[in-house]
Amino acid sequence: MDFSLEKWQPSFAGSVTESANDARVARFLRDSFPYPYTRKNAEDFIAFAQGETERGEYYRAIVVGGKAVGGIAVTRGQDVCRRSGEIGYWLTPACWGKGIMTGAVRTACEEVFENTDIVRVYAEVFAPNAASCRVLEKNGFAKEGIKRKSVFKNGALYDSIVYARIKE
Ligand SMILES: CC(C)(COP(=O)(O)OP(=O)(O)OC[C@H]1O[C@@H](n2cnc3c(N)ncnc32)[C@H](O)[C@@H]1OP(=O)(O)O)[C@@H](O)C(=O)NCCC(=O)NCCS
Description:
Blueprint: E1 4-7, H1 13-20, H2 23-26, H3 39-49, H4 52-55, E2 58-64, E3 67-76, E4 84-91, H5 100-115, E5 120-126, H6 130-138, E6 142-153, E7 156-166
Parallel strand pairs: 4-5
Antiparallel strand pairs: 1-2, 2-3, 3-4, 5-7, 6-7
The structure holds coenzyme A (COA).
Coenzyme A binds near residues 90, 98 and 135.
């Protein structure tokens, strides 16, 4: 499916609210990604994402047919971890299984390695999230380890799996 990665702009607030407001999206994400997901959540997020350049970070809307159907970000670590970036991403369920996130992660890594001084992109995936593990493996991320019982989400404890890709 054709998609583009575009800088966040206020006009995406309506479509991103519609796309994000689904329990299947939030299930394997941090609680900072809320469910229900409101228009106010979208507006606050977009305002924050627009400061990406000053922070040397990467925030993009995943756009299909002019609508924001998902998001992808690489956020920078602090102190001695400041040349590491954590990648996070989500897509509305109607668009799952079409290869969109595999392509989005590829582009995000290329652009972050090209345009910032980040040399390590990593992810921490909740262990049951097999589709996300697959997306990372298809993009050359190596499995580095398991953080046992590190996540408590919706009343359940999960292991998380650390994946990373290093700039060549
Ligand atoms: C995880 C997510 C981003 C995947 O996006 P997507 O665009 O559907 O991913 P793709 O179509 O590019 O690739 C998915 C791959 O996972 C595989 N997959 C899907 N469900 C699977 C499952 N239950 N078990 C094993 N593999 C699975 C697909 O077959 C595909 O691999 P393939 O190309 O080798 O066949 C999407 O499901 C999502 O947004 N989930 C909710 C938010 C989330 O979990 N974000 C990640 C947090 S770390």
